[in-house]
């Protein structure tokens, strides 16, 4: 590069507005909760009836799929816990208080949205529409805090994602799984 050429402008990183990563101790706590959940589901799946006396195979047992998913969750929780320990989760450290309040409010918003979806929208609207509205609202609300720059585009993207998700869920369940949706 010669002295007469202007330096190239660097593009803004798409991650420039993101928060710093959480301390490793939070990963360790998350791993413990997920491991307890996974082991609990494994125990419940193990105790489900197998119907071997009716179908002569254990592969039709209703606990197979939840047991498999719980096993995967448990294994990934162990990996997360080991990674957190390697990153220093057991060393003394202070956690920033701002994360806790922000995370708690985001959790509350997600819980309210999920409750409105399951308790109000499903059953009153066609399932595809309820799902589309839920995905749109969830995406729009959590993208809103990124600021006004690009907000109209993000709202259009949220609407398209919501509509696509609603239609895809309907088609997959009704056409592939042959499940009638409410």
Automatic annotation (TrEMBL):
It comes from the Bacteria. The chain crosses the membrane at residues 28-46, 66-85, 128-146, 158-178. Residues 29-182 form the DUF1468 domain. Keywords: Membrane, Transmembrane, Transmembrane helix. The keyword Transmembrane applies. InterPro entries: DUF1468 (IPR009936). This is DUF1468 domain-containing protein. It comes from Falsiroseomonas bella.
